[in-house]
Write a structure and sequence with these properties.
Layout: H1 17-29, H2 44-56, E1 60-64, H3 67-77, E2 85-89, H4 95-102, E3 106-110, H5 120-126, E4 132-136, H6 145-155, E5 158-162, E6 170-171, E7 174-175, E8 182-186, E9 199-203, H7 206-215, H8 234-237, H9 250-261, H10 263-281, E10 288-289, E11 296-297, E12 302-306, H11 312-324, E13 330-331, H12 356-362, E14 365-369, H13 376-396
């Protein structure tokens, strides 16, 4: 009888005991709000911001309520206004163009390559159409950041990085989030640190970070932001920057700080699982693995592969066969959005002229989570099942 995988693709590891203990201390104090402190106390949010700034090498850091809020605050902080065009990836998740639409701006989609990164040739063609690029490192794949920045600098385009899937990753030794003016991260449950919901912004730009802090709902308490700019930076912008409250609370920060301390070892564990699946799927007929450049230090908490140019019926057959054997694959090629797998032509709040080369890639992408609750043996079994079912459909086609 064919083997069946019995694991749960959405089951995360428990919060570390140190995080649980820290959360209980915050709960017992009653001081969950980041600005509610007693003399001599440093809020958990402040400590998290200082520690994450040090981790990434950034000058400034702000903790906020979600990764999506971080994106919106970053766009406002660099001056995006209603009606402005903003470049972004055609292959991303809905909160990325959603954050652009939420500030009244207009997403302009840039294509995706077979390596699942932004198409830099398409970017070079479209760079003159906008003054901001919201770059999504979608599913943890990082493009040639040297070339991307050269294109954007030549065209006068400000880069904001969506690093929801690349916390702990780097290009040529420079952490994701440190290439553009602002880097945005998520601490939602399925990301590399888990606080249920949450987000972080980093930047070396004092005015942009001051605006983000005011936007987050600091009132005039910005001097308590020890990972923020000096008070004089706020002198002008504090009167012209609206309060769009989206602060992180001390409870979530307390949960996150021990996870940050252990992030490097967790990233290594994810990559072990990725490598196990990758090895098991190598040379599978009809299946294309995603190339990982030498300059890319990735964190692979999910796995993608392509069934390029396969008929729709054959792809849905693979998905159904794998599902019957306990392996959950998500598909970005479906005509209708399913779960989180919507695509650029699903988002009717923005124009989406046809992108045939991108459509070909999106039609082929299969996606799978790799939670740390999976053992290496689990990952090897998952690879065997996918290999068998892809091979079976390929041979019968």
């Amino acid at each position: 009888m064919s083997e069946v995988f019995r694991g749960n693709f959405t089951q995360q590891e428990p919060i570390p005991e140190a995080g649980i203990e820290a959360a209980l201390r915050v709960l017992r104090s009653g001081r969950l709000h980041r600005y509610n402190t007693v003399p001599g106390e440093v809020a958990e949010t402040v400590l998290l911001e200082q520690e994450f700034a040090a981790y990434t090498g950034a000058r400034y850091c702000l903790a906020v309520a979600s990764g999506g809020y971080a994106l919106g605050a970053a766009l406002r902080a660099v001056g995006v206004k209603a009606g402005d065009p903003v470049l972004t990836n055609a292959f991303t998740l809905a909160p990325v163009p959603g954050s652009i639409a939420a500030v009244g701006a207009l997403p302009v989609y840039v294509g995706v390559t077979e390596d699942l990164v932004i198409d830099l040739d398409d970017l070079a063609t479209k760079a003159g159409q906008a003054r901001v690029l919201l770059l999504s490192h979608m599913r943890g794949h990082i493009c040639d950041m040297d070339r991307l920045m050269a294109i954007c600098e030549a065209a006068g385009v400000t880069v904001i990085e969506d690093c929801a899937h690349t916390m702990g990753a780097a290009w040529r030794g420079i952490p994701s989030g440190r290439w553009g003016k602002i880097g945005c991260y998520s601490t939602q449950t399925y990301k590399h640190m888990n606080s249920g919901e949450g987000g972080l912004l980093i930047s070396d730009d004092a005015e942009a970070m001051a605006r983000a802090i005011m936007l987050s709902g600091s009132y005039m308490l910005y001097e308590s932001h020890k990972a923020g700019p000096a008070p004089e930076v706020f002198a002008r912008i504090r009167y012209e920057t609206p309060n769009v409250s989206g602060r992180m609370d001390n409870l979530r920060a307390a949960i996150l700080r021990p996870q940050l301390a252990d992030l490097a070892s967790q990233c290594a564990r994810w990559n072990e699982r990725y490598a196990t699946v990758e090895m098991g799927l190598a040379d599978t007929p009809g299946l294309r693995l995603i190339a990982r450049p030498e300059a890319e230090a990735y964190v692979a908490s999910s796995f993608q592969f392509l069934l390029l140019d396969w008929p729709t019926a054959a792809i849905t057959d693979v998905i159904a066969r794998c599902a019957r054997r306990g392996v959950e694959l998500k598909w970005f090629g479906a005509a209708e959005p399913v779960g989180f797998t919507s695509r650029y032509d699903s988002w009717d709040y923005a124009p989406h002229p046809p992108m045939p080369a991108t459509d070909r890639v999106l039609a082929a992408i299969l996606d799978m989570r790799l939670p740390l609750t999976f053992s290496l043996e689990d990952c090897a079994q998952i690879a065997r099942i996918i290999r068998a079912e892809v091979s079976g459909v390929w041979q019968s086609a």
